[in-house]
Amino acid sequence: MLEKLRERSSQKELMDDFQGTEDELKIVLDDINRVNRLLGGNGITIDSVAHLIKKNPQKSYTILDVGCADGHMLRALATFFRKKRVKMEFIGLDLNTDALNIARKASINFPEIRYVAKDVLELKATDLPCDILISTLMTHHFTNEQLPRLLHQFARLPKIGFVNNDLHRSGLALILFKLFRFFFIRTPTAKIDGAISIKRGFKKRELKNFADRLPIVQHYIKWKWAFRYVWIMEPKRPNANE
Ligand SMILES: C[S@@+](CC[C@H](N)C(=O)[O-])C[C@H]1O[C@@H](n2cnc3c(N)ncnc32)[C@H](O)[C@@H]1O
User: Quick check: 164 pLDDT over 60?
Assistant: First the structure.
């Protein structure tokens, strides 16, 4: 039977308190990345960043990925924008130093990407100036009480805007995921966390409520296959010509 999943779950993911080695973490992250690739999750963020860039022409851009883990999204963006010949610098920010070690090793051929170990909530606007801030599968790790502070940071840090790509909480998504994990997911951690992540995901009205609490930004929230919401925020900053 379809679960309604009316409220966001407060169950913790195993990855929130991962006790394994760096090698074990890499195996789980590779598993999660494969799922995202297969289900098209990365393309949503790439298209949204491309949209913001087209709208805001500049000579070069700095992209900040908050909760970058092993940096797979940054490498996907770097590869895409190299082909488009757009000059870009990338910063990956994460609390988890093991994940950042994996990210640095995997990004050896990407000199345009650097990694910083820091809590995003501690970041001052001048610490890591960026044009576009992205976050993927990160906000669902935060409770409804913690989210306003995180989103306030997301709204004030980037010059051009912010792209958040996270999960739609839906009973149908949960059933399809359970079928999918049987065939495509190898590690028990990714199997368990995938289901918890969906239960911690969002309904559109919840994202709109969070958006309404950030009056200085304009929002665009859209459902995307497979059970994602992309949320683009653009700060309404005073224009020098106005
Ligand atoms: C599920 S992972 C998402 C990884 C990646 N963005 C992806 O799409 O697969 C969430 C990441 O956010 C990081 N994170 C959680 N809270 C953070 C904070 N306050 N500041 C920086 N990173 C944080 C975690 O360490 C973890 O690597």
Answer: yes
Closest residue CA from atom 15 of ligand 1: 67
Instruction: Give the pLDDT of residue 237.
Output: 64
In the chain, how many domains are there?
1
- For the cut 80, the answer to whether the pLDDT of residue 236 exceeds it is no
- pLDDT at site 41: 86
Asked whether residue 59 is assigned to any structural domain, the reply reads: yes
Domain assignment of residue 242, yes or no:
no
Decide if 68 is inside a domain.
Answer: yes
Residue 240 confidence (pLDDT): 42
Query: Is residue 8 in some structural domain?
Result: no
Separation of CA 212 and ligand 1 centre (Å): 24
How far is the centre of ligand 1, averaged over its atoms, from the C-alpha of 1 (Å)? 32
| String of DSSP letters for the chain | ------S---PPPGGGG--S-HHHHHHHHHHHHHHHHHTTHHHHHHHHHHHHHHHS--SEEEEEEET-TT-HHHHHHHHHHHHTT-EEEEEEEES-HHHHHHHHHHTTT-TTEEEEE--GGG--TTTS-EEEEEEES-GGGS-TTTHHHHHHHHHHSEEEEEEEEEEB--HHHHHHHHHHHHHH---HHHHHHHHHHHHH-B-HHHHHHHHHT-TTEEEEEEEETTTEEEEEEEE-PPPTT-
Could you tell me the pTM of the whole model? 0.95
Query: Whole domain around residue 174: which residue ranges?
Result: 14-232
Ligand 1, atom 20: closest residue by C-alpha: 119
Which residues form ligand 1's pocket by a CB distance below 6 Å?
15, 32, 66-69, 73, 93-96, 99, 119-121, 136-138, 141
pLDDT digits over 76-89, tens only?
999 999 999 999 99
- CA 240–ligand 1 middle distance (angstroms): 35
Query: CATH code at 210?
Result: 3.40.50.150
